[in-house]
């Protein structure tokens, strides 16, 4: 089973904190929509600060969903205190829970702009998460844009020992690695070698945006298929374990899938006789000259005698044969059997 599918379902209640990380090059909103529409057994509270709720969920079919559309609550232009109200709503719902509950905040980047300071935003999210941790069947889902200074803080163990961090990447990033670095996606490339190249490049957000929005890019993130980097941290202390995997997301396959199932990556992971091979371009194509030989040219080439200097003096090598070095001196070589240091006045 794909790991992302089990985390989104969270039937074992082992993932109390889920962070969805989008970027300009690729959005994770399809994952958020899937999460909101595939949890009828859970009670979900959606706090919208950035995207309209109608773009995230079908409001007419949201019996188990409570929506708080606070997009128009701009500090200085609204009399509502969204932070105090959000804490009160979460506290009230979790005080007497009737079923598993999910708290969704979209997005923490807008929340940071409203609060204006990094420390106060961190403390506010810590209070929300403290209320969630009191209940084993509750979880907190945070949607964020990157780069964001708040992300490294909430993904540290000081905020939560358990974490499910979903980072989405455009398929153009893996295509760039396959063509420019000859590093196709796993399982073709060894995982340690692939991560050593993939991680430094993926962390350079502006370089990834250039691949998508540059002159040779596609101009937009792929809304139907994209790559999912999943970081799962569970446990505490010496028992804490961290797992990092790379999976796919496809609308045609109804959500989470294996990376090799993505249609956009199949040119780099083609199958031949049951084995994965790299579909690299032919370097001899589109050249003004011909690098291949015909059958007659190959026969003529095979009949050309090779000009070995000592071909007639060679003997078969046997067990008792002694090695020998053949050397033909050049005209400029100074071959002299006398003392080579005779010219030195010692």
TrEMBL record:
GO CC, alphabetical: cytosol; elongator holoenzyme complex; nucleus
One GO process term, biological-process aspect: tRNA wobble uridine modification
UniProt-recorded Gene Ontology molecular function terms: tRNA binding
Compartment(s) where it occurs, according to its Swiss-Prot or TrEMBL record: Cytoplasm; Nucleus
Predominant subcellular localization, coarse grouping: cytoplasm
Pfam families with a match to the protein in the record: Elong_Iki1 (PF10483)
Keywords: Cytoplasm, Nucleus, tRNA processing
Signal sequence interval, chain numbering: none
Family: Belongs to the ELP5 family.
Protein name (Swiss-Prot/TrEMBL): Elongator complex protein 5
Organism expressing this protein natively: Hebeloma cylindrosporum
């Amino acid at each position: 089973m794909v790991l992302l599918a089990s985390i989104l379902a969270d039937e074992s209640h082992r993932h109390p904190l889920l962070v969805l990380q989008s970027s300009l090059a690729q959005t994770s909103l399809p994952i958020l929509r899937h999460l909101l529409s595939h949890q009828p057994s859970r009670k979900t509270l959606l706090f919208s600060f950035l995207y309209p709720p109608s773009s995230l969920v079908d409001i007419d079919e949201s019996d188990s969903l409570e929506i708080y559309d606070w997009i128009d609550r701009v500090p200085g232009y609204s009399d509502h205190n969204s932070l105090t109200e959000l804490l009160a709503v979460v506290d009230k719902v979790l005080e007497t829970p009737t079923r598993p509950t999910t708290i969704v905040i979209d997005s923490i980047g807008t929340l940071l702009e409203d609060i204006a300071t990094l420390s106060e935003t961190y403390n506010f999210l810590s209070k929300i998460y403290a209320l969630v941790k009191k209940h084993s069947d509750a979880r907190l889902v945070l949607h964020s844009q990157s780069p964001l200074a708040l992300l490294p803080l909430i993904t540290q163990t000081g905020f939560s020992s358990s974490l499910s961090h979903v980072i989405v990447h455009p398929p153009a990033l893996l295509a760039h690695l396959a063509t420019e670095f000859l590093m196709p996606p796993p399982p073709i490339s060894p995982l340690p070698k692939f991560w050593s190249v993939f991680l430094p490049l993926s962390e350079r957000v502006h370089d990834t945006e250039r691949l998508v929005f540059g002159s040779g890019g596609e101009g937009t993130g792929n809304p139907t298929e994209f790559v999912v980097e999943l970081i799962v941290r569970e446990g505490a202390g010496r028992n804490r374990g961290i797992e990092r995997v790379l999976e796919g997301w496809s609308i045609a396959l109804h959500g989470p899938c294996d990376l090799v199932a993505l249609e956009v990556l199949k040119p780099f992971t083609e199958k031949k006789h049951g084995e994965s091979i790299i579909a690299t371009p032919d370097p001899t194509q589109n050249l003004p000259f011909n690098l291949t030989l015909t059958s007659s040219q190959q026969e003529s080439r095979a009949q050309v005698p090779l000009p070995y200097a000592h071909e007639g003096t060679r003997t078969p090598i046997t067990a008792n044969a002694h090695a020998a070095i053949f050397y033909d001196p050049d005209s400029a070589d100074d071959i002299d059997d006398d003392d080579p240091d005779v010219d030195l006045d010692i």
